[in-house]
Design brief:
By secondary structure, this protein is mainly α. It is built from 4 helices and no strands. The protein binds zinc ion (ZN).
């Protein structure tokens, strides 16, 4: 699996900040099409799909969702990093 899951999480983060543009959406959609297990693993797949379907535009995630995603993303990036350094 050569998809860069960490980069995808960075894109998710951009979307949460309302920085979503067509290129970001396309990257996320493409990744979910080819690597949905990684998104599912964070338990945020439905949220991401919801953000995508709402076109992210101007509709920022509620603080509670932001907090949860922030936690998940930080945890995930930490896991990815430790995996890659210890492997
Ligand atoms: Zn992935």
């Amino acid at each position: 699996m050569d998809l860069d899951c960490t980069a995808v999480l960075a894109d998710v983060w951009l979307m949460l900040d309302g920085e979503c543009d067509d290129a970001t959406r396309a990257r996320l959609q493409h990744h979910m099409d080819h690597c949905s297990p990684c998104i599912e693993a964070y338990g945020i797949e439905e949220k991401i799909k919801s953000l995508l379907s709402r076109k992210c535009g101007g509709d920022k995630a509620p603080d509670s969702l932001r907090d949860r995603l922030t936690l998940e993303i930080h945890k995930s990036i930490t896991v990815f990093r430790s995996d890659s350094t210890e492997a």
